[in-house]
Amino acid sequence: MYEEFEETGGKALWFVAGAAVGATIALLFAPSSGRVTRRRISRAAAQGKDSLADTGRELADKSRDLYEKGRRIADDAADMFERGKKMVEG
After folding, report:
1. According to a count of CB atoms within 10 Å of the terminal CB, is the N or C end of the chain lower?
2. Dist. CA 87–CA 59, nearest whole Å
3. Measured between alpha carbons, how far is residue 24 from residues 11, 52, 83 in Å?
4. Are 54 and 90 in contact (CB under 8 A)?
5. Cα–Cα distance, 11 to 39 (Å, whole number)
6. What is the pLDDT of residues 8-26, one digit of tens each?
7. What pLDDT is recorded for position 31?
8. Domain locations in the chain?
9. How far apart are CA 75 and CA 81, in angstroms?
10. Cβ pair 41, 20 in contact under 8 A
11. SS3 of 29, please?
């Protein structure tokens, strides 16, 4: 489960980073005035920031879910341990 979380988060982060770099390069080579290019870069950076924030929120949500699942598993294991201990003690 952790591997799936790590793989998804890593892919999303690299996708956002690649899109931002690609958009910036495309804008720098576009035949526009400096003011227009700066405005486009600013918009692209804002969109990238928003996308990165969304990805961060998704990763935080997934990590909370994984934490809760792990906590439940640990609680269940502790309960089973106590039941087994009682059975052995008689």
Report:
1. C
2. 42
3. 20, 16, 61
4. no
5. 28
6. 667 777 887 788 788 777 7
7. 74
8. 2-89
9. 10
10. no
11. coil
